[in-house]
């Protein structure tokens, strides 16, 4: 669970940093990828939490 928490912090920090940059095609792609990654992490965390 600790690894997921660490990764959540990394991803949310990356989203925050990308959100502060001007919106470009590359930045939009990065934000979309990070959003997908965040969704996956939250799903994994929910599954782990339900299992315990």
Describe the structure.
With 52 residues, the chain is mostly helical. The protein is built from 2 helices and no strands. The chain has helices spanning 2-19, 25-51. α1 runs antiparallel to α2 (25-51). The protein is elongated, with a radius of gyration of 13 Å. 4% of the residues are buried. The mean pLDDT is 89.
Secondary-structure-based class equals mainly alpha
Strand content: under 5%
Treating each run of at least 4 consecutive H or I residues as one helix, how many helices? 2
Order of helices and strands: HH
N-C termini distance: 11 Å
Q: Rough shape?
A: elongated
Mean pLDDT comes to 89
Helix content: over 70%
| Count of β-strands | 0
Major beta-sheet overview:
none
Unreliable stretches covering 5 or more consecutive residues: none
Cα-based radius of gyration, to the nearest Å:
13 Å
Q: How would you describe this structure in keywords?
A:
52 residues, mainly alpha, 87% helix, elongated
Layout: helices, strands, pairs:
Elements lengths: L1 H18 L5 H27 L1
Gist?
With 52 residues, the protein is an all-alpha fold.
């Amino acid at each position: 669970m600790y690894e997921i928490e660490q990764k959540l912090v990394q991803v949310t920090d990356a989203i925050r940093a990308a959100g502060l940059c001007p919106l470009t095609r590359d930045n939009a792609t990065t934000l979309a990828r990070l959003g997908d990654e965040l969704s996956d992490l939250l799903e994994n965390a929910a599954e782990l939490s339900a299992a315990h």
